[in-house]
Amino acid sequence: DVLSFAKEDQNSMLKLLAGIMLLGNIDFEPVDPDDEPVQYRVSTPDILSKACGLMGLDSAALEHAFVFREMAQPGGAAPIDIPRDAKQAAGQRDAMAKSIYGQIFLWLIVEVNKTLYHGDGNSHIGLLDIFGFEVFDLNSFEQLCINFANEKLQFFFNMIIFKEEMDLYKSEEVPYESIKFKDNSECISLIEGKTHSVLAMLDEEAHVPQGSDAKWVNKLHSKFSEGSMKSDYYDRNRRQPAYFVIHHFAKSVTYSSDNFMEKNKDELGEQIMRQMFESKEQLLKTVFKDLKPKD
């Protein structure tokens, strides 16, 4: 109310957020385990129905979009449905939830600016959301992204608080005691370097024929645990070849490479995007309108 949001928009936003939370509880199961290839379906149809009801979506169409992808055919022929496995279906579910949440956030910023800003000039408010460092029993792509953000923040802190301050004292001939701090720039390069890094090689693997999580992590082992590019910030677990270790500034973390490639894609299929554009919930259509292809 304070920021002049209409009651209808407030209610719609809460409904969409509730729908996002329900999406995370949707699971998948084989229709018939003996089929080849195995086709999957939603094993929690009641949750799917509730989520779709909140977001104004067709539950049958959304289930189909989760478990099949469309492959276009030449000459304008009808597209072919290609079954997704359970991990791929879950990836589409998660990408949908993140996409809706992200679009709502962007819409909120625009609407808040309309209320708060009245005038000319370059006025803005900067917000820094500091992530907590994450170490779980099982660490995956999400933890790597969060811990990488922490590495970058630590690097920024080192540069501003230590290096730049000492350089300033030196230039102004102010007496100071040199402070030794651990430079984590090599760890950052290991993760985000332009060509030879964890993330660069993950992107590259996505474009390699028959690329896989297993092949990707084996390349990391070969590159960073031995040879000329061996890194002090990388280790492998020889008993568990699908795992790799990164020695972060806060703590060493063991990551499972399983499903890294699918999570890195994070792309919504066209069928799910069409669901957004055709939603009966007006706010959902509004926040996705800029993503709709031009006719």
Describe this structure in words.
This protein is mainly alpha-helical. The chain has 11 helices and 7 strands. The protein has helices spanning 7-23, 45-55, 59-67, 86-116, 141-171, 185-192, 198-205, 213-224, 260-265, 270-277, 282-288; strands spanning 28-30, 40-42, 68-71, 80-83, 234-236, 243-247, 252-256. The chain has a 3-stranded antiparallel beta sheet, with helices on one face. It has a two-stranded antiparallel ribbon with strand order 1-2. A two-stranded antiparallel ribbon has the order 3-4. Helix 1 runs antiparallel to helix 2, helix 3 (59-67) packs antiparallel against helix 10 and helix 7 (198-205) packs antiparallel against helix 8 (213-224). The longest helix has 31 residues, at 86-116. The protein is flat and about 70 Å long. The two termini are 37 Å apart.
